[in-house]
Specification:
By secondary structure, this protein is an alpha+beta fold. The chain is built from four helices and 15 strands. The strands form four sheets. The protein has a six-stranded antiparallel beta sheet with strand order 3-2-8-5-6-7, with no helix packed on it. A four-stranded antiparallel beta sheet has the order 9-10-15-14, covered by helices on one side.
Length: 239
């Protein structure tokens, strides 16, 4: 399967052919739908058939293979025939918000000098859990620093290294709970210029300025050594 989102995170739709239909969902030969993984939710959207039929897609998940994406139709949605030509189209506004928040969490990860024990990218809101036994984070100060980097409009780019190269650079992996996908021969790195470099398979914006202003909604204790930092787009977060 060709993963269009991997080559172009800004692609909103693509032509595709149905290669399998089953209880799990619909598989295509190529897709713009990002499947749930790495803390980022799967895309939603539609599939359009030439005769005008529209299939609502409520989720996208990883299948059994490395590049296998299963598109989950909504209840009662019609199912296409194998071999049918479709246009796969994501809910772009939702995806773009997820991209902005995912990139924001990379910046947050770089600002807090502690291992990440968990996290979640949400629609307009996200959080990271840090291995911090003491309450050493100041909500206001952290928000100021985060917004300063966003305003600098630093570019984001990607590169690839081999599994073997990653194995001798374990410091690149900052998340304790989510490990980068290995076993496929190479691993994708996301680079925020001058700020952060770490393995990531998710979708991101082109520059930090695209994230927009954010606020640290709250910092709370979660367990003996965990501090949870919740961030939201400015004007949308409530404690």
């Amino acid at each position: 399967m060709t993963l269009v989102f991997r080559e172009d995170a800004y692609a909103r739709s693509c032509d595709a052919v149905v290669v399998a239909v089953g209880p799990e969902g619909i598989r295509l030969d190529r897709t713009v739908f990002y499947p749930e993984g790495g803390g980022q939710p799967g895309d939603t959207g539609v599939m359009r058939l030439p005769e005008g039929t529209t299939i609502t897609i409520v989720d996208a998940r990883k299948g059994s293979g490395g590049d296998d994406v299963v598109h989950i139709p909504g209840p009662g949605s019609p199912m296409p025939d194998v071999g049918a030509a479709v246009v796969a189209e994501i809910d772009w506004e939702r995806r773009h918000r997820l991209m902005r928040m995912h990139s924001c969490l990379h910046l947050l990860c770089a600002l807090v000098d502690a291992p990440v024990t968990g996290g979640q990218v949400g629609d307009g809101r996200g959080r990271l859990d840090f291995d911090l036994p003491e309450a050493t984070l100041d909500r206001v100060e952290l928000g100021v620093r985060l917004n300063a980097i966003i305003a600098e409009n630093r570019p984001l780019s990607e590169s690839w290294i081999t599994d073997a190269e990653l194995a001798v650079q374990p410091e690149l992996v900052k998340t304790m709970s989510v490990k980068p996908p290995i076993g496929l021969g190479r691993v994708r790195l996301m680079h925020v210029e001058g700020v952060d470099l770490q393995p990531c398979g998710g979708t991101h914006v082109r520059a930090t300025g695209e994230i927009g202003p954010v606020e640290i909604v709250k910092i709370e204790k979660k367990g003996r050594i965990n501090r949870r930092v919740t961030v939201a787009f400015a004007g949308t977060g409530t404690p």
